[in-house]
Amino acid sequence: MTQTIKTLALNVRLSCQLLGVPESSYYERINRRRSKTQLRRQHLAIKIVQLFKANRGIYGAPKIQHLLLNQGEKVGLNLVQKIMKQLQIKSVVVKKFKPGHSVRDGIKRKNLIQNEPTKDIYLIYQVTFDIASLRICLTYLKKEPKTRGSRSRVFCMLTIKVK
């Protein structure tokens, strides 16, 4: 109220009558001195901003409070937190990297490691030995259950030369 009356250069008496406030309250408010607590908080706010900027905005309230204690200021953590909240300054939080996925994230994932092989897949092995060329041939046929649009047979041949 006092700032708007001053900035707009309004008539004090008329403004106080419209708002239902005595003129003495207006003048008392204008001439009021700041309390020791307000002066201390203003002084701490300036120091907190300086320390915050000096440390590139990385330090949060606990580290700033520790620095203030080292400088001889007697200040608690809650007060530093309140002042930082009033000034709307927050530290940069860098969380450590945690590899892998958490079970608690609620995403169901397919189990890629199965303890028992599926019963629907079977392999047919054939081993032959060629005496003339001294080679061992291993052939296998992998048969899987048919699904829509997929082929179910895989053929592989492995040849090893024996010396």
Description:
By secondary structure, the protein is α+β, with helices and mostly antiparallel strands. It is 39% helix and 17% strand. It has helices at 2-8, 12-19, 23-31, 36-54, 61-70, 77-87; strands at residues 122-130, 135-143, 153-161. Strands 1-2-3 form a 3-stranded antiparallel beta sheet, with no helix packed on it. A hairpin with a 4-residue loop joins strand 1 and strand 2. Helix 4 packs across helix 6 (77-87). The protein is elongated. The termini are far apart.
Per DSSP E runs of 2 or more residues, the count of β-strands stands at 3
Strand order in space, largest sheet: 1-2-3
Shape: elongated
Helix-strand makeup class: alpha+beta
Give the biggest sheet.
3 strands, antiparallel
Number of helices: 6
Average pLDDT value? 77
List descriptors.
alpha+beta; 6 helices; 163 residues; 3-stranded antiparallel β-sheet; 3 strands; elongated
What's the layout of helices and strands?
Blueprint: H1 2-8, H2 12-19, H3 23-31, H4 36-54, H5 61-70, H6 77-87, E1 122-130, E2 135-143, E3 153-161
Antiparallel strand pairs: 1-2, 2-3
Helix pairs in contact: 4-6, 5-6
